[in-house]
Amino acid sequence: MKSYKKFWKLGMEELGTKDFDINKDGELIVREGNYQYNILDLIKKFGTPLEIFFPFIIEKRLRNLFETFNYYTKNLQYKGRFYYYFPMKVNQNKEFVLSLISEGANLEVGSANELWLVKRMWEQNQFNSKIKVICNGPKTNYYLSLISELKEKNLNIIPVIEDRTELKALRDYRGDIGVRFDLDVKTKSHWDKKIDRYGFSFQEIMELGKIKNLKIIHYHNSSQVERLEDLINQVKRAIEVFVRVKEKNPTLDTLDLGGGFAVPYLKKKMYTSDQAIKRIIRIVKKTAEKAGIPHPNLICEWGRYVVAPSQITIYKILFEKKIENSIAKKWYIIDGSFMNDLIDTWAIRQKWHVVPVNFMKGLKLTRVWLAGSSCDSDDKYTAGGNYILLPRFDEMGEAEDLYIAFLDTGAYQDALASHHCLLSSPAKIVAQNGILMVARKRETPEEVGKLFGW
Ligand SMILES: Cc1ncc(COP(=O)(O)O)c(C=O)c1O
To answer: Quick one: which atom of ligand 1 is closest to the CA of 260?
Structure first.
């Protein structure tokens, strides 16, 4: 018998779909321990387009990171400590950020407005006093004043200096600081830019000499780093630079590896956190020992890796349209928009794992391209000029609509989302411990109009 679960690449740890399965009726289910969510039931209750966030998935992934780092620090007798900082830009939704904080995450912010959210939570006493916050991004005067204010209110807040102007502005800062190194390592990734405007070059960083209260060397080279070797080469270079900077800065004791860990969106096996962490610790340890310095503390800001698999986005197929002379046979038109809800589809040609929510078993499949509901001919998903296999409309009868799920949509898409053709953003629900909560209702025409001054 054909294994449908395998065919749709579900239930596979290495592909991030361990908790996804198909029930006997050919419908998509998600398992949280022994509880299971039937996605078609959720659609019937909340409609489409619909985003479903599963906090248990990020909690599990973060716990796994802590356990793996702890395992290898012990196993390899590494003396430095490990800290996780969640980069808020990856997903600022309250339910995401709070789930991560409650699992022990610290925070990395990239703007004054993100820091303002931190300020609110700090003032409302919602944090354990041990939480730490790293501040990246251009330091406007307002951003700098928030940093000082929170420092005075005893939040452990660490600004990361990105250029000489910031160095001047933070000269008298009375707490720990970091500097950002513009890592000169080639990486296979969409974001590997020949000229990067962030951070100090090696030469500049050496010229800076002694920096008051320097604690952290930080780098962030690119996102979705596809090859483990590239990730490791980044660490190799960064620890070499760390050793050099420490010569003049004995207070320096932490290496911040930034983000970059990739998600297997395409459902092809990639490297695992276990493989990466083991090699990272080995390299840092060896280089530090060779240089005769203590093992540095390690920070990682892997954002996409931790949160992307925790959300799925659901659409109804509204109708189909024949395509002549093409690799795909039909357009399937969805009741949402790629340009609005999953904007990376358009912006960086992001590829996604797409599965049907119903009719996953038994029906004949057809090659389709997906089109959004905006008027824009760019509002489409063609899997990079390939095709998507989905059940055939003429096979399924009139009784039921066809729904599809995009997996791994939990990173970056919400803050980048837009309103082309004034389409409403999807509703978002949170599913945890078998309880469903509406985090954001589907926008009404009045709400969308208001955004544009109506
Ligand atoms: C400074 C910094 N840290 C971490 C991240 C998160 O990267 P990723 O989601 O690839 O792990 C980013 C993303 O742009 C970033 O700019």
So the answer is: 10
| 61 Cβ inside 6 Å of ligand 1 | no
State if residue 302 touches ligand 1 by the CB under 6 angstroms criterion. Answer: yes
The rounded Å distance from CA 259 to ligand 1 centre is 4
Sign of CA dihedral 360, 363, 366, 371: negative
Amino acid at 223: S
- The verdict on the CB of residue 258 being under 6 Å from ligand 1 is yes
Does ligand 1 have an atom closer than 6 angstroms to the CB of 338? no
**Whole-number Cα distances in Å, 261 to 59, 100, 264:** 17, 17, 10
Measured between alpha carbons, how far is 57 from 64 in angstroms, rounded to an integer? 11
Task: Give dist(CA 236, CA 259) in Å, integer.
Answer: 15
Please work out whether the CB of residue 220 comes within 6 Å of at least one atom of ligand 1. yes
Atom of ligand 1 nearest to the CA of 90: 9
Domains and CATH numbers, the chain: 4-55+310-451 (2.40.37.10), 78-302 (3.20.20.10)
Q: Parallel, antiparallel, or unpaired for β 254-256 and 297-300?
A: parallel
Ligand 1 and 16: CB distance under 6 A: no
E-strand spans in 16-114? 20-22, 28-32, 35-38, 50-53, 82-87, 106-109
Give CA torsion, residues 48, 49, 53, 54, to 10 deg: 40
Q: What is the pLDDT along the chain (454 residues), one digit of tens a residue?
A: 469 999 999 999 989 999 999 999 999 999 999 999 999 999 999 999 999 999 999 999 999 999 999 999 999 999 999 999 999 999 999 999 999 999 999 999 999 999 999 999 999 998 999 999 999 999 999 999 999 999 999 999 999 999 999 999 999 999 999 999 999 888 888 878 777 788 999 999 999 999 999 999 999 989 999 999 999 999 999 999 999 999 999 999 999 999 999 999 987 889 999 999 999 999 999 999 999 999 999 999 999 999 999 999 999 999 999 999 999 999 999 999 999 999 999 999 999 999 999 999 988 999 999 999 999 999 999 999 999 999 998 777 777 899 999 999 999 999 999 999 999 999 999 999 999 999 999 999 999 999 999 9
Please pick, among 135, 300, 375, 421, the residue that the annotation labels catalytic.
375
Q: State the pTM of this model.
A: 0.96
Distance between CA atoms of 236 and 114, rounded to whole angstroms?
31
- Check if 135 is active-site: no
State the distance from the centre of ligand 1 to the C-alpha of 221, rounded, in angstroms.
Answer: 8
Cα 400 to averaged position of ligand 1 atoms, centre (Å): 41
